[in-house]
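Kindly go through one protein, given below as sequence and tokens. The question is how this chain folds according to its tokens.

***
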Amino acid sequence: MEDTYLIILFLVMWYFLIFFACLFLVSGTDDLFFDIYYWSRYFIRKWKTRKYKPLTYEDLVNQPEKYVAVLVACWHEANVIATMLMNNCYAIDYTNYYLFVGTYPNDPDTVAEVQRVQSYIKNVQCVIGPDPGPTTKAANLNGIYNHVKEFEKTLGIQFDIFVFHDSEDVIHPLSFKLYNYLIPRKDMIQIPMFPLEVNYWNFTHWVYADEFAEIHTKDLIVREAIHGHVPSAGVGTAFSRQALEIIEDPLTKGPFSIDSLTEDYRTSLTLRIKGLKQIFLVQSIERLKWEQKGFFKKRYVLKRKKEYIATRALFPTEYKKAVRQKARWIIGIVFQEWVHTKWPKFWRVRFTLAHDRKAFITHFINGLGYVVFLFWIVYSLLTFNNPAYPSLQEQLNLYPWVWVLVIISTLLMLERMLQRFIGLYRVYSLIPAWLSIPRAFYGNILNLHAILRAYKQYFLAVEPKKTSKSTARQPAWDKTDHVFPGSHILTPYRRRLGDILVEENIISPEQLKVAILEQQKTGERLGKVLARLNFVDEKRLLKIIANQYNLELVAKENIIVAPKNVSSKLIKWLEGKNSYLVDYNEKDEQVIIGITDPTNELLIESIIERLHPLKTQFVLIDLSE
């Protein structure tokens, strides 16, 4: 009897193998089209673009600034929103902008934090909605949008650019200048979104990096090139005023669909169907970044690196939270849009929608494929050299086309891993790229869990009353808990020193150009070059740098030479890093460290790790007489 069950299971898994291999082939061919198109276009443009002048900072600066309204929807974000607002307002290289933060009357902690920042940063506006939360995110955004219209009347200005951002975003200092340069020639601009770097073994967060690094350096470029749908990522998306006015709903008085959990995707798709101009903009700048060198990684050197003008953020690091967020994305992009938009008449849009919607089945086969694979390994081991049972090899000999199918599917899978490897290497570095291989298996399990949750949530959701033309189901806003990065992680994304010095008329643009040319020859930090050329006084420069990095400036007399209860070995280690002990509070387990170069985020991170579990605070030390 057991033999019969095993043979039945053998046949069932054989047909599963064929079924999954066919689906892998179809899905893999779809992905292969994007890869072939991208690389063909890449090499053609690499030759052609030599004839065109690249976009420069001067081009961006010479464009008169339009008013930018940043829409930030908040629900229970008291722990991150103030830090996000303060860091971004200080970093953004733009003047005519306001951050409108949508809050709820039954979320007093978030309201208090936003109003606290608003009291001393004029660019921040707290928008308290009329309804208690949580509503859908789209309803919150519509409330902000309508408030902006009233705010315009009060100030007598008009916002020409509207931008999506979340409460955990690190906004690139130059992103607003890019939007300002291209709008209103373009109706929607999406810049890349990349997760911040964290510990390499935090696979959950890095799964997001795997996906965004590939999609936002390759797939979206192809989607724009073939005139398909360029989806909004929900952050780093800029809309022209005209675009949002065209899609305003007369019932809600807002442009964002309240019956969608992915209002960003719905908005961009609506714009595409209406024939408005969408672009995915990939621009990069060169910056000096610190790298660890030597066998034991004890030395730090400056290297010139390409940096994308992109939004950065910390994504969920816990498995359950990632499943929740991905399930919400699947519900909005796959299920709700299938009901709402169906299949538009434009074949290019249909093709890109099919690419997105195939997740309803590919997440299953990517995850369950491991079950089939493990079955055949276990079965082959248990029945090895036992002629009483049929073998997989016999079946493949009888049906060689299945073997060909399996080989092709395997090659497509390896090609997928290669493309992801390239994307990770392009945005991050070699180690995250190599680790994307084992993460692929982890990511498939996570996505399988997310699709199961999405099916359960969507099909068990209560049907809404048909008070509008929409018939889509409306599960509640399953909001993700957000975390804003520590200040040392933000170091590479702060405003440039040269921009600050020019804006405050401390140096002229011509002096900055001279200093940058000198910097390119010597590889020194810009501050050292400016001081050496006598363009700025060293003391004044230190004050500006301290202000730039939100650090207190202290004199060298504050250094504790022979502290009690602190090992001389630690003091020697700090001095070897050009760092000094300024204060040690044993009772509160807090230590204050003076540093000479706040730009070296790797050094700061190593000090934090060395002094753990003590709470480490940094100040800028002035070693001059």
Summary: The CA atoms of residues 193 and 311 lie 5 Å apart. The longest helix spans residues 2-48. The first strand starts at residue 67 and ends at 73. Confidence is low (pLDDT under 50) at residues 466-473.
